[in-house]
């Protein structure tokens, strides 16, 4: 069962429906025990990192999420679900993240002519090709909506870069952990292919 973490931030139903379109059932829950029992775990979200982590803590969801990642359960973070994985976010001040990956979340500092948020379609450049991107070509477009981006301390975890006034991390991969800055559920056929590949991981 694919389990989607519900912490009241983001349109969880759109992620669930996208999985259903690939032929895979997904369950939305905020129950720590159900999250602890998931065979695949998805952490989506839209909004500010500090508020999101606070909400996860309030619902006692941090430990089961971390335990699942540590135990080798396939994990997919989407947008805010990527940013929360890191040590600190500077969105609206300085806020502690989940500390699963070392690094920080910073705001775009862009040349003249670039708008924030970065919103729309952008191309993927593979640095490493995670299994969930099997069958997806270099230069494929995915859909982004964000004002902040992650800067991992360990550049080896950066799987995909995109360019918006300069390169930025568009996806990370470490062992069973996958996370994207873009929204697969809004990225049409390419995004559905990513979700299908995740759902069918061994």
TrEMBL record:
Catalyses which reaction(s): 5-[(5-phospho-1-deoxy-D-ribulos-1-ylimino)methylamino]-1-(5-phospho-beta-D-ribosyl)imidazole-4-carboxamide + L-glutamine = D-erythro-1-(imidazol-4-yl)glycerol 3-phosphate + 5-amino-1-(5-phospho-beta-D-ribosyl)imidazole-4-carboxamide + L-glutamate + H(+); L-glutamine + H2O = L-glutamate + NH4(+)
Designated name of the protein: Imidazole glycerol phosphate synthase subunit HisH
Active site: 79 (nucleophile), 183, 185
Domain Glutamine amidotransferase: 4-198
GO molecular function, a single term: imidazoleglycerol-phosphate synthase activity
EC number(s) reported in the record: 4.3.2.10, 3.5.1.2
Gene3D superfamilies named among the record's database cross-references: 3.40.50.880
CDD domains documented for this protein: GATase1_IGP_Synthase
Subcellular localization(s) per the UniProt record: Cytoplasm
Keyword S-adenosyl-L-methionine assigned: no
Gene: hisH
Pathways per UniProt: Amino-acid biosynthesis; L-histidine biosynthesis; L-histidine from 5-phospho-alpha-D-ribose 1-diphosphate: step 5/9
Subunit structure: Heterodimer of HisH and HisF.
A cellular component annotation (GO) from this entry: cytoplasm
